[in-house]
Design a protein that fits this description.
The complex is a heterodimer.
Chain A lengths: L1 E5 L2 H5 L2 H10 L6 E5 L11 E4 L5 E5 L7 H10 L12 H8 L17 H6 L4 H7 L7 H11 L11 H10 L6 E6 L8 H8 L1 H15 L3 E6 L4 H16 L15 E6 L9 H8 L23 E5 H13 L1 H5 L9 E8 L5 E6 L4 H8 L9 E6 L5 E4 L9 H6 L8 E6 L4 H15 L5 H18 L7 H15 L3 H5 L2 H19 L14 E3 L9 H5 L5 E2 L7 E2 L9 H5 L5 E3 L1
Parallel strand pairs in A: 1-2, 5-6, 5-8, 6-7, 9-13
Antiparallel strand pairs in A: 1-3, 3-4, 9-10, 11-12, 11-13, 14-17, 15-16
Helix pairs in contact in A: 2-3, 6-13, 7-8, 7-10, 9-10, 9-11, 10-13, 17-18, 17-21, 18-19, 19-21
Chain B lengths: L3 H4 L8 H7 L6 H12 L4 H10 L4 H10 L11 E6 L2 H5 L2 H12 L12 E6 L11 E3 L2 E3 L4 H18 L1
The chains are: A alpha/beta, B alpha+beta.
The structure holds flavin mononucleotide and FE2/S2 (inorganic) cluster.
Amino acid sequence: MRIAVGQGSCGIAAGAAKVCAALQEQLPPNVKLGTVGCIGMCWLEPIVDIYDDDNTLLHRLVRVRPEDAARILKWTQDGEDFNIMDLIIGKDDAQFLTQQTRIALRNCGLIDPESIESALAAGGYSAVGRILSADSGMTPEEVIECIKVSGLAGRGGAGFPTWFKWNAARQSPGNEKYLICNADEGDPGAFMDRAVIESDPHTLIEGMLIGAYAIGAQEAIVYVRAEYPLAIRRLEHAIEEARAAGYIGKNIMGSDFSCEFRIKAGAGAFVCGEETALIESLQGQRGMPRLKPPFPAEAGYWNQPSNINNVETFANVAWIINNGGEAFAAMGTADSKGTKVFALTGKIRRGGLVEIPMGMTLRQVIFDIGGGIRDGKAFKAVQMGGPSGGCIPAELLDTVIDYKKLAATGAIMGSGGMVVMDADTCMVSMAKFFLDFTAKESCGKCVHCRIGTKRLQEILTRIVEGNGRAGDIELLEELCLAVRDGALCGLGQTAPNPVLSTLRYFRDEFEAHIRDKQCPAHSCTALLRYGIDADTCRGCTLCAKKCPVSAISGTAKNAHRIDPDICVRCGACYAVCKFGAVRKL
Amino acid sequence: MECACTKQKSDLSLLAPVLAEYASVRGSLITILQKAQEIYGWLPVDVIYHIAEQTGTTPARVLGVATFYTQFRFQPVGKYLIMLCDGTACHVNGSAAIAAALREYLHVENGGTTADGLFSLSIVACLGCCSLSPVMMVNEDTYGSLTPQSALAIMKDIQAKEAAQA
Ligand SMILES: Cc1cc2nc3c(=O)[nH]c(=O)nc-3n(C[C@H](O)[C@H](O)[C@H](O)COP(=O)(O)O)c2cc1C
Ligand code: FES
């Protein structure tokens, strides 16, 4: 029997390492204990899987605590289910996985990320073996053709056809070429790439090897954001293992193909996710984007032909080589092929990693797979594409997941962040949140972005603080268009999207803030009023005792009152009232 | 007035192995700065001058690169660096209340360090553990599903551990 504990960063944060240590301490000799990555069911962490000797999953245990170790191990000896009944995953929760189609995440949570044997047993490096095979191998052109047939588009955000970029880099003159993986994953609320690297680093390495072979690169570089220490450690380890096994280095698998690998840790700058800024950063400079053209395929890293792809893009490549481009293209819609991974978070009941074929609706992902909104509240909007994207409201939940269809809503497919919001979320303050982010992350090279995002941020700030003026909405719209059209790189060009899309669907919320000085979601502190419902109040005096500024008056057993002129809207009374008598007005 | 760089007296010999490995490799400035920060905990001004000299560039360029990236610090950092996430998911799930609780309890603003040198507070965007939001990291440990109470409990645990060691 074998026990596997899910230990991605999220599992470890939920306590998986302690569970693992507790199991280790009492481990009977006939049970093996191992580590796997993240299965994507983050809301159930820590997760422990029990396999029999034929590698069949016997039980998946969820929300396991270190105290549970003893009875889990007892079960491995006596097999009496009642011992661990309460830990076994529920039928509803288990459906989270059965409704998915996993290609990029195919091994995540199933194999040991720190063991190349585990990756090899799952078919790792077989696609490299296939293309490099002496008698039945594939030429670089054939590899590019296979990717073309698959219809694979870049998963980093823009959705550019992968084969086209590979072909351009291949055709570019020069012998010194570079293949770069963008693992900067700067979109807040997205963690697909982290999960792939932490859970299945060899699949990334294999996809990159195939890309390097296709474009003719001798060196592959992974640019990983510094906030992902575990991902960096596991990838370093995987590169060492792959080198020792002959998949990295000179004459890979006895062929003429040689490729070196290295990791570069980012240093914290969102704009470095933009490919030309990433190249500047790799060269040890300030990460400021360059004007395109020339594209990296012509003049990239050290001015040599370079190709940059996202982690998830690479994670699909080996599967495509093994199963054929047609198999990948068979999934999805007319112009979006294959699957896409989303990080489902926010006010969602089942938050985690979801990989689905293109063409599913947002409703299926959020409600069928994600289980809908937590605490039975109403769905308000889903944010896709982070600071470059937009919000999609409830009436568009039947929108199909497809690059063009999503773009038509004003949001974008993006890299995969899907943050779900309920009725308590103020859309004006969300727009401000994203502009705070882009204004801070703007590199300052071009005026439209540097100053435009700052002005947008200022206007949004005054609106949420109750100082909005008539004409502010029109001013926002005018500025948004100017920034979009005038900015140098994608950061500035897309920075207005969160504002434009919230204005499109939630204009009345902007108007309520500006005209009526009201926040309909009762979320903007400056516009909030607290009051006590006289009929519900029992006169327990707790709120009056908690109030830091003595704004609450009333005697025991009689209804209390808040003086709005003294109240500082800290919410202490609201939090402390046991009877729900304190109301947000 | 005396120049700040002459007042600071860091042990520059600690950096020698890093410079030996990277000083002549093109494009290594960020790597050198990262290794320097690992050694000193931050980037003292004399270290910046030393790196410039050893890599054949100007202090202005080194500082220009270092200040571009949020990872680099120009002041000593506390023994425990708290990175509290205010990414989208954490924001929607109430990270502001946790920030307020930490600020009040530790008497420290974003970017600051407590008087006893134990904690530095840094508010960051997304630690990649969004499904456990709100999230914070204290040095290399990640804590999820925070409430203001649980965040303070973590602080108190650390303080108790430190007091026991002292
Ligand atoms: C401001 C900005 C940030 C970006 N951040 C990322 C990122 O974190 N990860 C990523 O893969 N692509 C990011 N991109 C997109 C990259 O520029 C590039 O298009 C992508 O890495 C190409 O890979 P793909 O074709 O596989 O998608 C960003 C773009 C912009 C404008
Ligand atoms: S938004 Fe906080 S960890 Fe991602």
